[in-house]
Design a protein that fits this description.
Blueprint (H helix, E strand, L loop, with lengths): L4 E2 L2 E2 H20 L19 H13 L4 H22 L5 H21 L5 H8 L10 H12 L2 H10 L15 H12 L2 H21 L5 H17 L9 H18 L1
Antiparallel strand pairs: 1-2
Helix pairs in contact: 1-3, 3-10, 4-5, 4-9, 5-10, 6-10
């Protein structure tokens, strides 16, 4: 049995990408698409009964932070597939990939004017650093990814900043003046007010959120590298013949999930 494909695409990868996007949408719906911590009491209307708290707990436990990992993994996998397909045709895809990242950044920046939590600009920036890793041996690839998952990036940033923000002087406390002013702009301001708030300050705060001491941008890049590694193994091109491996990974993942609770 062969994996399903459509016009040279791997249907399983497209299905997983749609699955991850659905999970991200659900999480953002629960967060009301604020893109920042909500001031105290701002979201009380979303928790009026026990059902609201149960649903929020389920989403927090099973969805929040999980689907971004899957989407980041698939970004790294897609990078490998594009590079590998071009290599098989005898062409160099690096410049074209950079061009696609530039387009992705523009789309993401426009999106960030509406929604401060946009992730596309971060993907476009981090994607640049995938290119040098394409030719690195697997052991170094996995080694560096492991260091990122262990917090190497955060330790380095802490040594540089001593815990301060990289790009802004504010903080992410729900009662900070910056957060209160932002929340007021999206609640009571015009669309232009939202644009002004997100144009520069919003983007810099997002960079602090993604690249600061307690940020997850480093994990995002780690998942990029993991997707690149799995792409090299050719797992998704032949997954029907690797059922035993898939089951073992599933069992270990379930066990790891409960251990982490």
């Amino acid at each position: 049995m062969k994996p399903a494909t459509t016009m040279g695409r791997m249907d399983i990868v497209d299905a997983l990408r749609g699955f991850s996007l659905a999970g991200i949408v659900i999480v953002h719906m629960v967060e009301n698409y604020i893109g920042a911590p909500a001031p105290e009491g701002a979201l009380d209307a979303t928790h009026l009964g026990i059902v609201d708290y149960v649903v929020d707990g389920i989403i927090f436990l099973f969805l929040r932070g999980k689907f971004f990992a899957l989407f980041s993994f698939l970004f790294g996998l897609s990078f490998f597939i594009q590079m590998d397909n071009a290599h098989k045709r005898g062409t160099d895809f690096k410049l074209r990939f950079l061009w696609r990242l530039a387009i992705l950044f523009v789309i993401g920046y426009v999106h960030s004017l509406f929604y401060r939590g946009d992730i596309l600009t971060i993907y476009a920036f981090l994607g640049i650093f995938l290119i040098p890793f394409y030719s690195i041996k697997n052991k170094w690839l996995l080694g560096f990814a492991s260091l990122l998952f262990l917090g190497l990036g955060r330790y380095i940033i802490f040594l540089i900043t001593q815990g301060d923000n990289l790009f802004t002087a504010g903080n992410f406390s729900p009662d900070s003046p910056e957060i209160i002013a932002y929340y007021d702009s999206i609640k009571n301001g015009s669309l232009l007010d939202v644009f002004k708030s997100n144009l520069i300050d919003g983007h810099l705060m997002k960079l602090d959120f993604q690249l600061g001491v307690f940020s997850r941008g480093y994990l995002t890049y780690g998942f990029f590298l993991l997707g690149l590694f799995i792409g090299r193994l050719g797992y998704f091109r032949d997954y029907f013949n690797k059922i035993k491996l898939t089951k073992n990974v599933l069992y270990w993942s379930i066990g790891g999930f409960f251990v982490s609770l």
